[in-house]
Each structure stands twice: as C-alpha cells, then as structure tokens.
Design goal:
single chain, about 350 residues, mainly alpha, 434 Repressor (Amino-terminal Domain), Arc Repressor Mutant, subunit A, 3 domains, 3-stranded mixed beta sheet, 3 strands, about 55% helix, elongated
C-alpha cells in the first residue's frame, strides 16, 4: 500500500470513527478543506500537504502520524457475516468494523512495542477440504495436538489464547457473532460479540471461528459461503463434543431422555441443538427422527424454550483484552522507556499531565 492509498484509507476510517460526514468534517476545519477535496483524498486521487494534515488531525482528534501508520490488521480484508432474519443497517456495520479495526490495532501495536513474540498455529491441515468428515478429522487432530483428548473444554477462550490465538471481545449488534483473521499476515485472532448471552452459543462461535482460521485457505474453491459455514459448524461440534463420547453414551439407545441430554450439555458446554446435529451426523438420529425433533421445536414453545436454555457454567476467563489490560501495557512500555510520555498520552487518548500523574515506577 503506497502513501497516498494509506492516507486515503486512514482518513476515511478516522472520519467514520468520529461519526462525521464529509460536509461535517469540512465544517470542522473551518471550511479550509472542502468536501470535494476530502472526497479526492479518500479516493486516493491526491495527497494533503502538511498544513492541511494538521487541520484534519485537529478536526478528527488524531495525531498526524495516524494517517500514515501501516496496517497491522485490515478489517476490510475480513468478511463479516450476519445471521439471517436479522436487520443490521450499513451504518451499524460500518461502526462495528471501525471499532474492531481500532481495538485490534491498538493491542497489536502496543504488544509489538513491548517485543511480544507471536506463534503460528501448529496444526497440520489437509490441502483440499470439501467434506464434513475432513473437518471432523481436523477437530480430532486439534484435540490430539493440544492434549485435550476427549475431555470437556472448561473455558474455550483460555485454551485458544494458550495456543497463540488472540481473542478479542467487542460490544456488537444483534446478529453479529464473530469474525476471525490474521494480523500482520501471521497473528491469528478472532473477535467475539460480548452480547451473546447464551454461553453454549458463544463457545460454539469461538470454535466455529477457529475452524475458519485453520481451514479458510484450504476450502475447495467451488464451495459456497453456506457450505463453508456448515463445514465450520461440523468442526465446532466435534471440538466441543467428540464423536467418541456421543457414540459411547448414546450409540446403542433407541430412545434418549431429556435428562441425558441435559447431562451432556452441562458437562461439555454444547447446546441441545448441536447435540441433536451430532446424533444426525453419526447416524444415531436418521433423517426423519431429526426432522421430527426440529418440527417439535418449531411447533412447541415450551419445548423450544427447554432446548434453547443455557445450562453450562463456564469458568471466568483469565485472559482478557480489555481496556484495563491495554492501559497496563502502555504504562509498562512507558516505564521501560520504549515509548515517550507524549506517545503514551496519544495511545491512551489522555493528556500528558494525566499520564504523568499515573506513571509511577519503583
């Protein structure tokens, strides 16, 4: 990305983050930068001079060097999908993308300053994936490589971060579950919506995004997005509830009680729907039996409420990329003299005086 293109993207991002139209940004510069000029900047057609850069930085409350900061993570390269039957406007989608971009970049930048070393995911992935069984085998390989065996996973976020995957939480709109991708080409990360109240769904989403991280580059080019999502669901289901457990517990039973389903849900942190999906995949439920389950759920409100009830109690994660943690990283870099106090103030969006008052070192 050349300087003009970088400036164009950063200017647009800063403007959208500030919630300003081009007209409003022009007004904030005292009309010294016209809407037409801003449009040309954002289209990458021309470059601003130093005096205009200062005007724009003041209007947008960002330092001048923000406009030329290289991208460690570019949200435009990551596809964000929303669940069906959910209305999320383009304005809300844009706001979400900007907040994700900002949060991920800030943490990557400060950790890079502190010299944090990143490790790639050390999992062997089939070069050409098109079938659910390949995703099932991939999940089994992950469980083997990570030493999980067929045991329940107490906290999904912790185990992901223990294996080098950065997991960020963000306050997102209804309909957005999560995304995954890479920063600086080789830092695996995912962003999960904190507003997912159902614990089982959040755990499933995290494992679904792990599947994308591992398999996206190996998916058959002819697969639709829907096909890929189904394959990632198969991976997530196997990661949370191994086939061996399902077959051992239910393989020989012609009828399965609600109590047995609740027991598995509470032990493995996976939804009743996902358990039923595993039954169908493993042949414990035939097509008609699984269809009957789905029909009953859709027709019986009480049964639906019972199915969708969250019953798993997940231990609190000890690994959070929250604002308190970020502030601690910045002050650590300042104490080690890796950044100046003015840089720390810029990173924290605080005054130098405020930062000085908190920068104690012993």
């Amino acid at each position: 990305m050349d300087t003009k293109e970088l400036f164009a993207k950063r200017l647009k991002q800063a403007r959208q983050k500030a919630g300003l139209s081009m007209d409003a940004l022009s007004a904030k510069t005292g009309k010294e930068v016209s809407k037409q000029t801003i449009s040309k900047y954002e289209a990458g057609k021309t470059m601003a001079g130093s005096a205009i850069l200062i005007k724009l930085s003041q209007a947008l409350n960002v330092p001048v060097d923000y406009f030329f900061r290289p991208y460690t993570f570019d949200i435009s390269e990551v596809e964000i999908s929303f669940r069906k039957k959910t209305s999320v406007g383009s304005k809300d989608q844009t706001a979400l993308k900007i907040r994700i971009q900002d949060k991920v970049e800030r943490f990557i930048d400060i950790e890079t300053i502190l010299g944090k070393k990143y490790s790639k995911i050390q999992i062997s992935v089939h070069a050409h994936i098109s079938l659910p069984i390949q995703m099932i085998m991939l999940a089994k390989e992950v469980r083997r490589a990570w030493g999980i065996g067929i045991s329940p996973i107490p906290n999904v976020k912790n185990i992901l971060m223990d294996h080098g995957i950065k997991v960020f939480d963000i306050d997102g709109p209804e309909g957005f579950d999560g995304i995954s991708g890479y920063a600086s080409d080789d830092i695996p990360l995912m962003v999960i919506n904190t507003n997912i109240q159902n614990i089982e769904r959040r755990r499933f989403t995290q494992m679904h995004e792990l599947a994308h991280l591992l398999a996206n580059s190996s998916f058959d080019k002819g697969l639709s997005n829907h096909d890929k999502e189904r394959l990632c669901d198969a991976f997530a289901s196997e990661m949370l509830l191994p086939s061996e457990v399902v077959e051992s517990e239910f393989g020989s039973k012609s009828k399965i009680s609600a109590h047995e389903l609740k027991k598995i849900q509470k032990a493995y942190g996976i939804s009743i729907d996902a358990i039923a999906y595993s039954f169908k995949r493993l042949g414990i439920f035939n097509e008609n039996r699984h269809r009957g389950y789905c029909i009953k759920k859709n027709m019986d409100p009480k049964f639906k409420a019972w199915v969708e009830m969250s019953r798993y109690t997940e231990p609190l994660s000890s690994k959070d990329y929250d604002e308190e943690f970020y502030e601690g990283l910045v002050y650590s870099a300042l104490t080690q003299e890796l950044i100046s106090i003015s840089k720390a103030a810029q990173l924290l969006n605080k005054s130098i005086t405020e930062v000085e008052s908190k920068s104690y070192a012993f």
